[in-house]
């Protein structure tokens, strides 16, 4: 069904956008969440054919 395919594509796009836009940040008690290195992210997306051209 087209509606389900569109939903999957929209969710995938949102996840990739979140990974690209993420920045390293520090939270409570000094805990850190590190941003993904963009070169590694792009390499991984290409490996699994998930990068739109």
Automatic annotation (TrEMBL):
Database matches in InterPro entries: ArgJ-like_dom_sf, Peptidase_S58_DmpA
Pfam families noted in UniProt: Peptidase_S58
Name of the protein: P1 family peptidase
Species of the source: Arenibacter antarcticus
């Amino acid at each position: 069904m087209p509606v389900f395919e569109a939903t999957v594509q929209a969710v995938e796009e949102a996840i990739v956008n979140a990974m690209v836009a993420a920045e390293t940040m520090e939270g409570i008690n000094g805990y850190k969440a590190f941003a993904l290195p963009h070169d590694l992210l792009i390499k991984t997306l290409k490996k699994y054919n998930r990068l739109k051209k």
